[in-house]
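Researcher: I'd like a structural prediction for the single chain below. Treat it as a standalone chain; there are no partners to consider.
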Amino acid sequence: NRVPSSSDTTIIPSGKTVTITDTSAVTKNVCTHGILKYSRSANTKLQAETIIVYSDGTYDQGTVASPIPATFTSEVVFTNTPIDTVFDPQQYGHGLIGLGTVTTHGA
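Model: Treating it as a single chain, here is the predicted structure.
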């Protein structure tokens, strides 16, 4: 286990939660079958090319019951890189692909 770099694909397995807790999170891709969550007690930012939330995964950038407080910022920044049509011939990548539960809610 280590902190991902801008060239890594981060995989969150089912049953695991990864929480973004600061503004330095960078990875190439995130593939989640578990939970990708943003802190409610700090400014946060995730930079990635593509985030895929599979049908059994959750992307939690605030919910109605637990919003990101108004005193904090929560950002996702999608990197501006060319689409690799060999790896992604259908060109689905670059952005948030939500096949599971996706919530974004601020106070």
